[in-house]
Each structure stands twice: as structure tokens, then as C-alpha cells.
Amino acid sequence: MTRPDPTTNTHPDDALAGIEVTAAFERFRQRNDIFTRAFWDSRVRTEKTDRFFASYRIEAAPRRSDGFQQRDFALRNAAWLVSDILSSRSADEGLREGFQAPIRSDTEVARDQVPVDDPSRMSDEIKRIARFFGADLCGITRFDERWQYATRVDTRDMSEAPNDLPEGICNVIVLGHQMDAALVATYPSALAGAATGREYSHEAAIVMQLAAYIRNLGYEAIASMNDTGLAIPYALQAGLGEYARNQMVITPAFGPRLRFSKIYTNLPLHHDRPRKLGVAEFCAICTKCADACPVKALPYGPPMADHKNVSAIRGVRKWTSDAERCFGFWASMASDCAICMRVCPFNRDVTRLRHRLWRRLALSPLRKLALWLDRGRGQRVKPADWWQEQP
Ligand code: SF4
Ligand code: SF4
Questions:
Q1: Residue 89 located in a structural domain
Q2: Total structural domains in the chain?
Q3: Which one, of 251, 242, 88, 263, lies nearest residue 179 by Cα?
Q4: 37 alpha carbon – ligand 2 mean position (Å)
Q5: Which residue puts its alpha carbon closest to atom 2 of ligand 1?
Q6: Which of 17, 50, 57, 325 is deepest in the core (most CB within 10 A)?
Q7: CA neighbours within 13 Å on the CB side: how many for 167?
Q8: Ligand 1 center from residue 160 Cα (angstroms)
Q9: Domain that residue 193 falls in
Q10: pLDDT tens digit string along 315-374?
Q11: Residue 363: nearest ligand to its CA?
Q12: Neighbours of 336 (CB within 10 A)
């Protein structure tokens, strides 16, 4: 297993993964995550951000127009419930599990270790078990210190705390969880937030169960959602997709319409390789996400190594959003936004032949024709129409 060169912070697979680290690289401190800053940084925290977080209690949810009525917030908040229960169970100790701390293990590591003679077969087995528990995608990559938060956050006072994992963690299992297409089509709305909440609740169960399986085999396994490290570069390294202008990983099966979780483990596993699909070339001629962003938080032009504010990692050349503007819009709506996911031409149902043909065109030198064919797609579906749909 090769490690990044400690003098340059680069790895031989970086180019294939579409990762370019510069001399200015610094590991990200979770305290600077925009959601965490909303609790301690007066430049981010406002009455609106307080109302945004409060709206996850139904009595504090605002009632407004279509998509922001009581039933919309009711569904969204119900979708988050399992994740909420998990993330609040260790609040007394300053651990917000799944977000600002890894998920605590509810299972001991078995005393007897199942021998692994063939890491490749074990990788296949893990992918099968991941699917069994409900993951839509699974890729495996090496542990990479660059993507680990330099520090995590103690949520009692938002101070920095050590972000340590047990000795010997060498592999990361990355899981993808597809979001409901019909709900994503209604972004921006509180109703659409149910697509996000449902996947957080699902992924919490899936990473806990898969980690428990590995621990029952006698190996260390730490279940993780947004906590502990950055999921996106791990997903790229695990070959699940390619990085795009909207700051998401475009996957062949679901485009940008999914969330990622991960498990850190010392179980011997074979690694997947990153894949160049042709997404970066398509994003170079497409600006649909940047055009559609209501607060112009997404960049135009090529990937850059600058960073808009402290909520972006330093020293990585990539398309980077202005997280302060983006979250400001979320706060004003009292719900999450993913317009940039909705309008992306890769957000399509590739179980249908015509969409598979479009994808092939988009990832070929005929990408301009594919972009032209996509015109008019990605319009918002009215939340009221979603509620009208018959089962
Ligand atoms: S989530 Fe919404 S506000 Fe944020 S970058 Fe995407 S479109 Fe813009
Ligand atoms: S909308 Fe266009 S530019 Fe934005 S991520 Fe999708 S393909 Fe790339």
C-alpha cells in the first residue's frame, strides 16, 4: 500500500482520481465546516441560521408556500429521525455521532479473528454484505491521512478535540446511498429535504451494521458519516465516480444524486482504483449548476487552488463553492438546497436505454451535442404535484 509522499502530500493515484494537491495544502479542521461555524462564528451565525436548525423540531418549522407547509416539514423531519436519535445520544460527552464524531461501536471486536487469505475475495464479500444492508454503491480504498480532519469538534463548547482512530486502520470502505429522484426534482423545498434526511437515517443503520459485521469477524471497524474525514476524496479514490463543478461526485449509476458514508477498518482488503470517466471534460463546457444557483455560490471557469473562505480545504485545486453564500440560502429557506444536483444533466435514470445512450454521448468527444440535447431538462417539479401522485 503506497502512502502520499509526506514532503509533497501527493500520491501516484491522484491524477487518476482527479485530485491535485498544491504546496499550500493543509488538512481541514472540522471546526471550519460551515455547519459547525454556524454555532461559533459570528460571521456565519445569524437569526436565520438559528431558525434553520430549530426548524428540525416541527413546532419551530415555519409555514409558508408550496413545499414549505406543515406536511413538508413533517415528512422531512420524520425522515431525519433515526439519524437525529443517533447523533444526539452522546451529546453529554460532546460527541455528535455521525457528524462531529464517529459512530460509537455497539459491538466488541470478536476475540477470534477469521483469517483472510485473499483480500480480493474479502472485498467482494464486503461489497455483497454492503448491498445486503442496503448500500447502493460500495468502493474500497486506502486510509489517507490527508482527508482526515486535523481535529474534530467537542460539541459542548465547539472547541477542537483530537480526531484519533485506533492504531492500524489501513482501509476505508466507501458507501453510496442514492437519494429519491422524485423528491430531488422538487428542490428547493422542505419536502425535498426528506430525500436528504432519509439517506442520513438509512446510511446510519447501514454503516453501523456493516461495521458490526466486520467487528464480529475479529477486525476493527469504525462507522462514519460526515465525521472524522472528507468522504468525497475517499469516494474518488475508491473509483465510485468523478468530481464535478457542483462539488459532487458524479457516479455512472446515479449521477450526482447520492450521499456517501464510510467505514474505517484494518480488515485486509483489495483496493479499487480511481476512474476517469470524462465528467471533468463535460463540466468544462457546462455551467448549468452555476447558472441555476440562486446565490451564485458555484464557480465558473476551470478548477482553482484558491479558497473562498475557511470552510474550503486549503491547497487542493478543484471547483469550490462559496459555502457561506450556499449555507446562507439554506438558512433563508429553513431547509437544505440541492438545485445544483437537480439541474445537473447527469441526474437521470440510466436504467432507461435513452439515458444510457445520452451518458455515453456526454462522456465522449461529442459532449457538446449531449449538452445541447439536455436543454430544458431539470425543471423543478412543484411539491404540490409530488403530493398529488398516486401510489
Ligand atoms: S446547494 Fe443550492 S445554494 Fe448551494 S451551491 Fe447548490 S444551488 Fe447553490
Ligand atoms: S451541471 Fe454541468 S457543470 Fe454542473 S456538475 Fe453537472 S455536468 Fe458539471
A1: yes
A2: 1
A3: 251
A4: 28
A5: 337
A6: 17
A7: 0
A8: 28
A9: 14-380
A10: 999 999 999 999 999 999 999 999 999 999 999 999 999 999 999 999 999 999 999 999
A11: 2
A12: 20
